[in-house]
From TrEMBL:
Regions annotated as coiled coil: none
This protein's UniProt keywords: DNA-binding
Pfam families hit by this protein: HTH_11, WYL
GO molecular function: DNA binding
Species the sequence originates in: Desulfosporosinus lacus DSM 15449
Taxonomic path: Bacteria, Bacillati, Bacillota, Clostridia, Eubacteriales
Protein name as catalogued: Predicted DNA-binding transcriptional regulator YafY, contains an HTH and WYL domains
Domain WYL: 139-204
Domain Helix-turn-helix type: start-end pairs: 9-61
Length: 315
């Protein structure tokens, strides 16, 4: 094996280790102590940020801030990564308060001049739209940590008219209609619930053991947890035929599309606490929205439209 191939294999090995000893290298690669020391020196020479701990039980570590090893990408993979970074522009409120503009600059500086020029062209010619996640979500990072390491949380949740405390086990987070949402299992109510992340004002991690049967759920299968309560409201929303394409682009598992002799309806049910989510969903149908049943949801929709009109008429 050529020397550079050996160095590359050893570099990948040490990046995967939180801690290793010289003896580990000698055993893994069947090399002598002097050869192992030469490879350590070679890694330091090419910029691998190793530091050693002295003494009989000493060894080597890599600085935490440099734990991502050097990786090579094809041009197509580079473009795909840049698209992913650029999509972060839509999210002014994000978990992990990293400076994505700095990440983008570092990324551009790491590629060849030819690819950098192509990416700069893409940057000025591609937009992911304007539906930014603008609401401040100070608890977003805490929620994500509780998802990564399953935990039971006590949250303080603020709705438009009251503040409540809940014990929840979060399942995931997703962005929709300009907001972050956290589907969760409400432990006290023993049912699935959807929370807006910007309305979670406080989080305490409890010592309660996470429910094993809930940990198997994620964003793909979470609706299996949805059970219709006695307070659930059946609804029927009539749309014109032009609205069918909007429905096909975005709908949810507890919705169905019915064609009743030319009359097209979205039918389903919703819990009272999620009516606002349904109303925001219906706004996208615009002029293709014909009618809403029952009257209570229709009135809520009209009330929201009235609020919008009053705001616009102030000028």
């Amino acid at each position: 094996m050529k020397k550079y191939e050996s160095i590359y294999k050893i570099m990948n090995y040490v990046y995967k280790k939180d801690y290793f000893k010289l003896h580990d290298l000698m055993t893994e690669f069947k090399i002598s102590k002097s050869t192992a020391l030469r490879y350590i020196k070679a890694l330091e020479d090419i910029g691998v940020p190793l530091y050693s701990e002295m003494g009989r039980y000493g060894g080597y570590k890599i600085l935490e801030t440099y734990k991502i090893p050097p990786i090579t990408f094809t041009p197509q993979e580079t473009y795909a990564l840049f698209f992913s970074i650029k999509s972060m522009e839509l999210m002014e409120s994000i978990p992990f308060q990293a400076e994505y503009s700095t990440i983008q600059e570092k990324f551009l500086d790491s590629v060849s001049p030819k690819i950098k020029s192509a990416l700069e062209q893409i940057n000025s010619r591609i937009s992911f739209g304007t539906a930014k996640i603008t609401d401040e979500c100070p608890m977003l990072e805490n929620i994500l940590h509780a998802i990564m390491k399953p935990s039971v949380l006590k949250i303080v949740y603020q709705t438009s008219d009251k503040q409540t405390e809940r014990r929840i086990q979060p399942i995931g987070i997703f962005a929709e209609y300009g907001n972050w949402y956290c589907p969760s299992f409400d432990i006290d109510k023993n049912e699935y619930r959807l929370f807006r992340c910007d309305r979670i004002n406080k989080i305490d991690i409890l010592e309660d053991r996470p429910l094993d049967n809930i940990m198997k759920f994620d964003l793909n299968n979470r609706f299996q947890l949805v059970k219709k309560s006695s307070h659930a409201i059946d609804y029927k929303v009539e749309i014109s035929k032009e609205g069918k394409s909007i429905y096909k682009r975005c709908h949810y598992p507890n919705m169905l599309l019915e064609d009743n002799n030319g009359q097209i309806f979205i039918v389903g049910w919703i819990e009272p606490s999620e009516i606002e989510f349904l109303i925001n969903y219906l706004h996208q149908f615009g002029q293709f929205l014909v009618n809403i049943y029952p009257h209570s949801i229709k009135q809520n929709f009209i009330k929201q439209l009235g609020t919008i009109i009053n705001k616009m008429n102030r000028d």
